[in-house]
Design a protein that fits this description.
Helices cover 8% and strands 40% of the residues. By secondary structure, the chain is mainly β. Strand 26 (264-266) and strand 27 form a beta hairpin. Helix 2 (493-509) packs parallel to helix 3. The chain starts with a strand and ends with a helix.
Length: 578
Amino acid sequence: EDYVNSLAIDPLATSNVYAGDFHIDFGTTSTYLIAKSTTSGASFNNLTDVTSAALRAYYLQIDPSVSGTLYVAGSGTPNVAKSTNNGSTWTSVSPHAGYPSALALAPSSSATLYEGMRDVNNTTVLGVYKSTNSGTSWSPANGWPSTTPDIQALLVDPANANHVHAGTNSGYYVTTDGGTNWASGASGAGSFGINALVQTTSRRLIATSGATIIMLPLDPAPTISANASPSTGSSAGGDVVTVSGTGFNAASGLRVLFGGVDGVVDLGASTSTSITVTTPAHAVGSVDVAVINPDGQAAIRTNGYTFVLCSFSISPTSAGYSSAAATGSVTVTVNTGCAWTATAPGGSFVSVTSGSPGSGNGTVQYSVTTNGTGSGRSTNLTIAGLTFNVSQSAFGAGSFVMTAIASSGSVSISWVSVGGATSYQVQRSNGGGAFGTIMTTSSFAFVDSTVSNGTGYLYKIHANTGPDSNVDLAVPFAYTDPSLSVGSTIIKAVHFTELRTAVNAARAALGWSALTFADTSLTGVMVKRTHLIELRNAVDGVRAGVGLSGVSYTDSTVTAGSTPIRAAHINDLRNGLQ
């Protein structure tokens, strides 16, 4: 008769199959062999090394990471042996005199081995021995809660060399620290003997006890200790939240559901007590949060998250700067505790320095680097899903002061005298182009009548002794109702539309991109606070681009629903662009 007590397939060469303790009984003579197939089991040949005939290999383990390395354990001599050449030759790696009762190799750390042992008489239990150096040396791993049980099966968690399961004559035990401490395992295993253990890919343990098969979870059931944080977010989804609790298995197959809809779990940022997850889109309202471990065990937090229709606004919506390095801030206003982020394009001259990510109302800080490019530049930050424009000119302070004041069809320029200078060049630029001289004069004033209404211009003065003045901005424009009378002139949509055009003309002069404003078409639209605030921010931005301070506005604080629109508000903006 032939008996096979162990069988193993080489994971690195799956056509290689090994059969251990291949027992051939010739009546009064028994032969113990290790047989090998290189044809996926179609045919077997006995290994001829004399040691293999004496092993009585009840247990076979194959190294999943080192090709050709096998371990066997049995009642022969030696009781544990190792081969590094696919079983051609064997060497002893026995931990202790006696009889092995189980052998397991750690898939995640294949130098780690565990063996169950009895004494040389096969009567006294010796417990578990452990090696972390491929069997070169062994030490007891017997931190049992009471009497050492008889080890009948060992299994090492594929992901953790210190997480070991033991089937014994008195039930199931588990250690998570490599045998320093063993504990009685999951309820349901009972106290009856377990003689075989396997683990499924969904992290459930299957045990056999005689003719009985038991399936047990490897992990404790998860718990959720609090509502998700933050506990409120957009119904559009995309918010990153944290779910806290215990017993989470941060492995493939972990799920977090919001009202029955899966979020996206970040396994790399999750632990046994904290899960980082991105919320899905969901209808507005409070929903249950469920965590489902890969083994199917779940926890539910009733009304653990609330989806809301988030509404974000930022103030200001744009900013402008001269060529010098600068810092700025943006206020984020949210209708509820929705999460948001602020980002700048990679490699941009603007960096977000603090405030992101945020939840609820907050402030974003940013920095602007010095512009040494010689040209204006512009970029957009994305803050709470909204666009915040940052523009920077190439101009800094001048050596003497000049001013340019625009009207319809002309720009009046004046400057202070420079000691020793006998003539001055009036230089002009538009559309972000280079400056060119339009007049040379010995006086200190000039009226440029060669301009076009609706076009932005930059001016500077160059003295014949070398120094340049500051750069000033002017936007000649033929405004509707050029003179706004308090109490008689009705504020119209065209007044705002023209100012938007003038602002973008000024930006074009600086080499900046045009802004997009709320309510692109104002026809039939009631004037809003945001229409005025956007223009104020834009006007101050282009003024900052040439080093000018912001305008001192009438009604510096504008409150929606209470501050009336006034002629002074329009005049302030027009004057700021002159």
